[in-house]
Amino acid sequence: MRLSTFSPALKALFAQLCGWGAVWLLGQSGLLPGGVWVLAFSQAVTATVAAAALRCARWWLPIHLVFMPLAFAAHALGIPPGVWLSAFVLFALIYWGSYRTQVPLFLTNRQTSRAVAGLLPPGPVEVLDAGCGIGSFLAAFARQRRDARLTGIENAPAPFAISRLRAGKHPAISVIRGDFFAHSWAGYDLVYAFLSPVPMPDVWKKARREMKPGSLLVSNSFNIPGTKPYRIIEVADRRRTRLLVFKIPAM
Ligand SMILES: C[S@@+](CC[C@H](N)C(=O)[O-])C[C@H]1O[C@@H](n2cnc3c(N)ncnc32)[C@H](O)[C@@H]1O
Question: Are 60 and 180 members of one domain?
Fold first, then answer.
């Protein structure tokens, strides 16, 4: 298996190890001048070069460049280890599988939820928020459409707990903890996805395989490569959200 095909997290780990390997070799050969900062910056530069050679996404490069110098600087501050551990646990609970799914947490605003709510005809409808975060889309949608039954699926523990709490105020909302790829989308009239470019091809495959003809997949911001949306909605919000609406074709 080629290294460039490894997951982003594995490639990042490998780049960091390459950095340390190179620094160790330079140290052994006597080419590296002494000093902690020389060590940190040499590791950072080699890790960055290794990340580029592994074809990591471009935004990983500045992270590798500052990672070890910042770790050394943070260590020099003498902050108790418990603080770092708490911060790590907090971020892990919020971002959980992001290293694998490559989907971070960001939130849908009310104008966008309203625009999505307007896509469905009046009457009882079933809506799924695939990756519901802290339930922002679900709560706004439930206020807009009292005739809708809403389901949210979320895999990160902290956002899941918050969306569950918020759902307590809205009897029409249910929130499930898990992977939305592992649940059937067959019963939904609309599936909403605010994710990242990475899962979109698989999201589209699943929608076509399971959703009924004529139902809608709405992607906030991220297109599906090689597929033309049936409609694009420009939301008049500050971030100029684009909603890409895909209609499930008949088989
Ligand atoms: C960009 S946020 C969107 C949150 C929410 N839909 C909103 O619009 O406010 C994406 C969320 O999807 C979750 N997520 C990503 N992949 C997932 C998966 N396969 N199964 C369940 N949740 C997932 C992430 O944990 C994150 O909370």
Answer: no
Q: Are 237 and 152 members of one domain?
A: yes
Q: What is the pTM of this model?
A: 0.86
- 169 membership: H or E segment, kind and range: none
Same domain, 119 and 222: yes
Q: Which residues line ligand 1 (CB under 6 A)?
A: 101, 103, 105-108, 129, 131-133, 136-137, 153-156, 159, 179-181, 194-195
pLDDT band at 97 (very low <50, low <70, confident <90, very high): confident
Chain segment 166-176, per-residue pLDDT in tens: 999 999 999 99
Domain count within the chain? 2
| Residue that is written with structure tokens 């802290």 in the block | 134
Range of the domain at 67: 3-78
What's the gap in Å between 155 CA and the centre of ligand 1? 7
Nearest atom within ligand 1 for CA of residue 153: 21
* 157-164: Cβ within 8 A, 24+ apart: 157/93, 157/96, 158/90, 158/93, 158/94, 158/96, 159/94, 159/105, 159/132, 159/133, 159/134, 159/135, 162/134, 162/135, 163/132, 163/133, 163/134, 163/135, 163/138, 164/135
Q: Is the pLDDT of residue 1 over 60?
A: no
**Best substitution site from 94, 105, 150 to test ligand 1's pocket, by max atoms within 8 Å of Cβ?**
105
